[in-house]
User: What shape does this take?
Amino acid sequence: MSIKILTVSSANMDLNMRVNECPLKGQTIIGDSYSYVSGGKGANSASAVAKLGGKSVFCAALGNDENGKILKSIYEKTGIDTSCILVLEDAPTGLATVTVEADGANRIVVFSGANAALSAEHAVKSAEKSKPDAVFCHFEIPYDTVSAVSHYCHENKIPMFIDAGPASEDYDLLKLAPVFVFSPNETELEIYTGTEPKNENEMLCAARKLQTLVKAEYYVLKLGKRGVAVYDGKTINIIPTYDVKVVDTTAAGDSFTAAMTLEYMRSKDIYRACRYGNAVASITVSRQGALDAIPDEAELEKFIAEKNIIL
Ligand code: ATP
Ligand code: RIB
Assistant: This one.
């Protein structure tokens, strides 16, 4: 039986611009190439679930504009259930400028548009209607919506997985109900805990600090090319990622966390789920773009065989 995951999160059109190096303050530079691609942390994750064989329901808000129409049809082609997507008359579809340097690193600015109007009421109704096995959120929609979803999931014993980006010092993490997994990347971890862990001991300290802010069964720290560190409330374990040539890191975190969620729900093994997430995310960073960079099941199987990965 296929696992059903409800993603309550953001949808953006990404203007992806390749440059050699990002401009300095006040500087103008000439870019190498650009493309408009389907992005948004939520859409990237909902796509990963669908591409990897899960039932993917996406609760999001789009504007009633050209970008909204293009994105909705891409989601449908990807196999995402779009019945919980709101189309708003009075807000434009979210837009992100994603500047990618030669080494694959990115800098992103998001104009939230319709994402800022994704209400707690609609999100909770979507959860009631879709009856998911697990719920997945980022913080690219109103914080109160994520908080309301966490309380709904806690009361209804639905495992909730939070990819904790983008982070803001304004978020009161203590407002969240206990969740199953809380997963920040390095910059988010620094905003929440004030530390940028360089070694295992510092990772353990950062995870313990996080534990005082939000209750979770597991804290999964995303550490870029170092892979991830899993804290289960007692010990920390590093799960390394796989060696690839990096082209564009956009959607690395989104595809990792969504794949980890799906594989955890299938196997109930957090370490296997993180190895699976690392394999998916390392393929994602080796390709250009967001949704398009995320592998499907066949591409993942081929990668796992080529790299002799034991999940
Ligand atoms: P995003 O660019 O989507 O915001 P993120 O900052 O949230 O990503 P990262 O920690 O950079 O998240 O990366 C998430 C996962 O992607 C890592 O845990 C790892 O599995 C994979 N990854 C990232 N960078 C690399 C790399 N250079 N080589 C292989 N895998 C990588
Ligand atoms: O995580 C990558 C995503 O962040 C991009 O697709 C962009 O839209 C922003 O939401």
Notes: The chain has a mean pLDDT of 97. The chain is about 35% helix and 25% strand. Residues 113 and 298 are 35 Å apart (CA to CA). Residues 10, 12, 14, 39-41, 44, 96, 98, 108, 110, 140, 250-251, 253-254, 290 surround alpha-D-ribofuranose (ligand 2) (CB under 6 Å).
